Amino acid sequence: MRARFQGAWAVAAAAVLAAGLTGCSSDDGGKQGGETAPGPRVVEESAVRADKQVELKEAETVKIGGLADRNAEQQVNQALRAPLEWAVNWTSSTLDEERKKQCAGRNNVIQTKVLLGLRGEIVAASNSISLIPCYEGEGALPTVPVIVDVKNAKALTAADVLTGKTLEKDGLKKLWEALSGPKQDWKDCDLEDLRRQDFFPGKRDGDPVESPAPAGIMFRAEGMQLIWSTTGTDCNNFTFTAPYDKVKDMINPELYPRLLASAGGK
User: Fold this and answer.
1) What letter does residue 251 receive in the DSSP assignment?
2) Model pTM score
């Protein structure tokens, strides 16, 4: 069984669309003398996206400042903001005529809470997204982790983070055995074994556009997390953990020392 949101909710691609943003942000950008404060930090944004019929209410994202290359800084911040922008477009794309009537001009409200993990050359953050719909409906949006390589100004996918063998059937079995967490609850939900496609965005449950990967990877100082999170109402949110030494052989060997350095040498 794979959890899904109740109702025919489509999903929108995660693109950063600055246009159409009205209202004001609670963050001043960390700017002093026209410069952005260095390092990653959590910022809040409250704004109305009138074109999407969405209101962001104290929505948290991560922003990095102080990079010498401003284009690289922009790329990194776009990657970190992508889960919030996905939620905006996802919500807008599901607003059919019947729901618009129920909303009667009111906006859907999106809120996010960010947990900032690694804060070095590799930055990792998990984004817990919630939606207060302006129409009758229930369900939950996912928690979406993001990992960025600040040095190379790119978002890291599961293929960048894990070895090729780890993403194969036997490797995923080994990874599962290394993880600790609510495995009995997982079993009680009749969820399937992890598959390679679970670690990548894709069209699922009849959705016409991509949704974030159900199995997201997150790095914190103490180790790796696997966050299983989907749109849905049941069996849609699990977090499993493993210390770095238990997953060392499953992580890209070129990335592993950089993770430890970003974790403070743990």
Assistant:
1) B
2) 0.84
Mind giving me the DSSP string for 71-126?
HHHHHHHHHHHHHHHHHHHHHHHT--HHHHHHHTTPPEEEEEEEEEEEESSEEEEE
Q: Which long-range contacts (CB under 8 A, 24 or more apart) does 25-32 make?
A: 26/58, 27/63, 29/63, 29/65, 30/63, 30/65
What backbone torsions phi and psi does residue 237 show, to the nearest 5 degrees?
Answer: -155, 105
Quick check: helix, strand or coil at residue 1? Answer: coil
Q: Which pLDDT does position 30 carry in this prediction?
A: 38
Strands 39-49 and 122-132: unpaired
Give me 51's structure tokens: 């074109």
Taking the C-alpha atoms of 111, 115, 119 and 123 in order, what is their torsion angle to the nearest 10 degrees? -70
Q: Among 84, 210, 56, 90, which residue's Cα sits nearest to residue 143? A: 84
Q: Split the chain (266 residues) into runs of 10 and give each run's mean pLDDT.
A: 35 31 37 58 96 96 94 96 94 91 96 97 97 86 96 97 98 98 97 96 74 96 97 90 98 98 80
